[in-house]
Amino acid sequence: MPFTEYTFNAENSVDRIFYGRIDVKKSSSFLFYRENSVVQHLIHHLKYRNQEQLAPFLGDWYGQILKEDPGLQGIIDFVIPVPLHTKKLRKRGYNQVTGFAKKLAHHLEATFVDDLLLKTANTKTQTKKGRIGRWQNNKALYILSDMKALKNKNVLLVDDVITTGATMEICTEALLQVPGIGVYLTSMAVVPLT
């Protein structure tokens, strides 16, 4: 498996994706995502072939690594998956990130919540869009249902794949409306910078 071996205490290329864009404490990712790779096939099967069991499997694996990471020990209060719109959730039957995020929360001794960050509109797949297209498509699509619950808390926001970082950027902008919040980012995989 193409592990990134990035940690939450050393600078890495996932951090660099977000420099100058959003104020996050730290970013990382579990695996490298390349076209026609094992990771691409795993995530494709997870999202489009009803292989929901892959998410907790990967989350348990990565969670065991993260609980040993000194950059995260005892810091995270909430683990939040990037949400799906309710229509897409009904159609797919599950959020592909949920099982992964739940396992991370378990290993980090944090609370998993999937009802505080909400997606307000159903958008088409973003896999064929560039950074600007993703950003324009995502603008104002994510809202918070309860800002008070996150006040002065540290949140780990979780996605499946970080490509351009646009989705994580828009979700983080919504989270940063909360006073005193600290946002950390992670994903199952990241497209390597070229």
What does this structure look like?
Residues 100-176 form the Phosphoribosyltransferase domain. The protein is α/β, with parallel strands linked by helices. It has one domain (18-190): Rossmann fold, CATH 3.40.50.2020. 36% of the residues lie in helices and 18% in strands. It is built from eight helices and eight strands. The strands form two sheets. Strands 1, 2, 3, 4, 7 and 8 form a six-stranded parallel beta sheet that branches. Strand 7 (154-162), helix 8 (166-175) and strand 8 form a beta-alpha-beta unit. Helix 3 packs parallel to helix 5 and helix 6 (131-138) runs parallel beside helix 8 (166-175). It is globular. The two termini are 19 Å apart. The mean pLDDT is 91.
